[in-house]
Design goal:
Length: 134
Amino acid sequence: MTSNHKIVLFNLSAVICTYVQVLWSAPEGVSAADMSNSPIAYLHWYALISLIFLNCLLLMLKRKSILSKVILSTLVLVIFWLLMNYMEFNDRVASWSTFSVMGIWIHVLLNSILTIAVCGAAFFIINRNILQRT
């Protein structure tokens, strides 16, 4: 498998995991920003930003081991997913009621544990296997 194929598969797995994670953890309710019920309309922008960060990270880690690349990429994606979940919860739930910033973060962390763990593990396993192939 060529390095171009690996990069394409890496990016594809990041986009798919991002879509699954955000749609799975998105709270029920209407968005205060655009009154929509689903984050699908702007989810591609979230995925694009995550791809830019991940590809820049891969360029910086060009000479590092495969395992360190996959671990750091997964960690960056997990942090990015937490921020997306925070923005979604803030937009769909907290904007309609009274939440403190700490209350929002506690709620987001508790509701994101399962989705981030499953999607993060899937991303890690898929990309470890993709990048280890010669």
